[in-house]
Design goal:
Blueprint (H helix, E strand, L loop, with lengths): L7 H6 L13 E7 L5 E7 L1 H10 L3 E4 L4 E4 L9 E7 L5 E7 L16 E2 L11 E2 L8 H5 L9
Parallel strand pairs: 1-6
Antiparallel strand pairs: 1-2, 3-4, 5-6, 7-8
Amino acid sequence: MFSKRVTIEQVEEGTELAPKFDADGLIACVTTAAGSGEVLMLGYMNAEALTKTIETGEAHYYSRSRKVLWHKGATSGLVQKVIEMRIDDDQDAVWISVQIPGDASCHVGYRSCFYRAVPVGANAASTLEFRESEKMFDPKKVYGDAPNPTIL
């Protein structure tokens, strides 16, 4: 499915998909909400996840902590339908715009995985500031009481 990377011109200006996976075989994927453009999450795809995302039109990722392919929403029902997929100039990062039933993406229950702000500047406090005031769903009802395998 992917072209071999041959020249800079082919990668940066050509029409062939020739992704550059890192040493672990992964490529970063920024996921945004199709309607608002809000950043929902940052995930990683291996070649299989990228291929499945292209073939199915639904987001698939590779879980670095669990070391498995992950069809986003298969457990929760919050499947990410890909509206548009782009690859950056040197083809080492992917951006997908998605629609999600229930309008939430984060396994913690918030709409976005980026629900807290980090204060910056000389007088910045060390306390994270919440930008989302309520959860979109109860993660215990969706995922059960199992501990989160992505937290070490």
